[in-house]
Amino acid sequence: MASKPAQQLMDSFGRVHTSLRISVTDRCNIRCFYCMPAEDVQFLPRADLLTFEEIVRTVRIGVSLGIRKLRLTGGEPLVRRDLPRLIQQLTAIDGVDDIGLTTNGLLLADQAAELRAAGLQRLNISLDALDPQVFRKVTRRDGFEQVQQGISAARDVGFRPIKINAVAIRGLTEDQLIPFGKLARETDTVVRFIEYMPLDADSAWERDRVLTAREILTRLEAEFGPLIAESSAERDKKQNASRQLPLLHSESGGQAPARRYRFADGRGQIGIIASVTEPFCSSCDRFRLTADGKLRNCLFSLEETDLRGLLRESADDSAIAAAMQSCIAAKLAGHGINSPDFQQPDRPMYSIGG
Questions:
Q1: What is the pTM of this model?
Q2: What CATH number is attached to the domain comprising 188?
Q3: Which one-letter DSSP state was computed for residue 162?
Q4: How many CB atoms neighbour CB 61 within 10 A?
């Protein structure tokens, strides 16, 4: 277990930041409507992406300031060539306790074994529907069977538990709630329902399309009976029992976005991320590095800190550390989605990193 760093990434509200989400690319092989345009997407030039060496240096500096958890995202991170090599390099950094990855699963069948061997510990798969037709409505592409193959491959190489992230959207995915509930009860899959957020490329988000946490729970309980909220102590015990490596900051502790529930008969569990109706901003400990090297202290931030410029201008570690600290210090109290003067970020989700 790493010792407490001499300096921390703390904002003006006393929140200490230990979790960094790293987007390795803005490219993706599907076109989910809540994330990116259907056609004519303008991706970053390759030269604008951070190199693996730049990412590793950034993480090393971040670890000296208290970063302990990493999550690789995109776009679709598995389209980034040689990703296992980056994972190996990040795993080797003393002080990194946990590395996860979020993927849409289309390329997972061919890469699961290599990712596991490289040291990847956790896997989240974005899958909004268990019906191929609904899947295509959301993603605007085919590929449902490929995702299923990817999930099977991940299980075969030992990823446990596998988490499914499903965005809940009124008028589109209500009828997927019960099938996902059955999946959680019949397998070791943890399904996490995520409220629909205003991060689409077309700025077409409507509050009325948010399928709320309360509604999700009501529908699931009507079908399966009571859902019991797990305490943080119960979640930590289960989380650590499933790992080969110790965790300094458990993903399912008080700072985690998902509230977990278990079915009353003990068969399975689900999670709900109520970003819109029940924000968890007061305990947020995460921030983001975009594929082009911009540091964002909130998913919905309207400002960014340019780390790529510092990295490529040969700034020393102390200058980069100071930039990180300034970015975190400027973090607002909350994302403001429910405020009348809320402004959606110019960057859609695929450009920020999930």
A1: 0.91
A2: 3.20.20.70
A3: -
A4: 20
